[in-house]
UniProtKB/TrEMBL annotation:
<feature type="compositionally biased region" description="Low complexity">
    <location>
        <begin position="245"/>
        <end position="257"/>
    </location>
</feature>
<dbReference type="InterPro" id="IPR020476">
    <property type="entry name" value="Nudix_hydrolase"/>
</dbReference>
<dbReference type="InterPro" id="IPR039989">
    <property type="entry name" value="NUDT9"/>
</dbReference>
<dbReference type="InterPro" id="IPR015797">
    <property type="entry name" value="NUDIX_hydrolase-like_dom_sf"/>
</dbReference>
<dbReference type="Pfam" id="PF25969">
    <property type="entry name" value="NUDT9_N"/>
</dbReference>
<feature type="domain" description="Nudix hydrolase">
    <location>
        <begin position="94"/>
        <end position="227"/>
    </location>
</feature>
<feature type="region of interest" description="Disordered">
    <location>
        <begin position="238"/>
        <end position="257"/>
    </location>
</feature>
<dbReference type="Pfam" id="PF00293">
    <property type="entry name" value="NUDIX"/>
</dbReference>
<dbReference type="InterPro" id="IPR000086">
    <property type="entry name" value="NUDIX_hydrolase_dom"/>
</dbReference>
<keyword id="KW-0378">Hydrolase</keyword>
<protein>
    <recommendedName>
        <fullName>Nudix hydrolase domain-containing protein</fullName>
    </recommendedName>
</protein>
<dbReference type="GO" id="GO:0047631">
    <property type="term" value="F:ADP-ribose diphosphatase activity"/>
</dbReference>
Amino acid sequence: MLSDHPSHVPAHLRPWHVNYPAYAPVDITPPELTAAGIAASVADGWAEPALTPTAVDWSARQAALVPFTVVDGQPRNPAGRTGRTGRDLGRWGENAAADAIVIIDTNDGRFLLLIRRGDCSRWALPGGMVEPGETSRLAGLRELHEETGVRGVAPIYTPAYVGYVADPRNTDQAWVCTTAWLYRQHDDRPLPRVQPGADAIEARWFPFTNRTRLVADIEAAGDQFYDAHGPLLTAASRRLGRPRTATAASSTEGETA
């Protein structure tokens, strides 16, 4: 599932152990993470002050969700070469996130809560970065409430997915890994009202039988799904089993991560 790479990085050259003398990644660091803007970003609380990864104490960051190596002070993306360098994330190396997969089974079928992201307008799971001193489970609940207004969902405390996320901001030196918490309940009352907030510009309940059908329905409506969250939904589907209704249960086939 480590697959977020630009097409110009051939698959056989992505592994770090493969020699690639002509490799020339593009620096995607935005102005707010350069010397001119870093102070404001640090003051806003979302970025660390190190302008280069060599300024980071990597011995304190080796307990990561996905193990990675550091060579000459430079962390190496565990997925291999990305074709991008610098950082477009708050931290160098692994950026720990938490996502909420909220499922409600009703007599009318299974429903999944999604948000429309403000940064790309694609439908995605509610979620965001884990704050200092916060557990991933609490981060998932916090992000869920901030982005949808939903509280009081019933959690399944074992994560549905823990691992690398093919986030479009990933670079060779900074990337996202997440813990996706599954929240599921059976309820024949009307679906809870949702109210978008924080980084979400819209929130909505979607009929959900599996990832493939969900993406097809979203695209048929002229929208797009946030591809990086596809593996998270596939993992959740395997945990959930079939929906309650015969109609919803008719399509549980053909999902790949």
